[in-house]
Design a protein that fits this description.
binds zinc ion, four-stranded mixed sheet, alpha+beta
């Protein structure tokens, strides 16, 4: 009998991204994101900022901390209001 193929864990876990703000150490309100794994319900954050980098960083953090077997986490749903400041560089 050929060996049964092992059931592979899903490669990507769908995750919910929450655009919020929270107070930093100095008590200032700052934009931040939280991400939640839809498979395990694990939540990480805050990661400061609402940029794509912030979301990616939060998803990477979730992959490190999450106990679901997925290889990585991908944004599946977005909640909250995303505020993107255009990066202004005056040179
Ligand atoms: Zn997960």
């Amino acid at each position: 009998m050929p060996p049964l193929r092992k059931k592979r864990p899903p490669k990507r876990a769908p995750s919910v991204v929450y655009f919020r703000h929270a107070k930093n150490e100095k008590g200032h309100k700052q934009l931040c994101v939280y991400v939640e794994c839809e498979l395990s319900g694990n939540l990480v954050g805050p990661v400061w900022g609402h940029s794509a980098q912030s979301v990616n960083k939060a998803l990477a953090m979730l992959t490190q901390e999450c106990d679901c077997p997925s290889k990585f986490h991908a944004a599946n749903e977005y909640h909250g209001k995303r505020i993107l400041h255009s990066a202004r560089r005056e040179e």
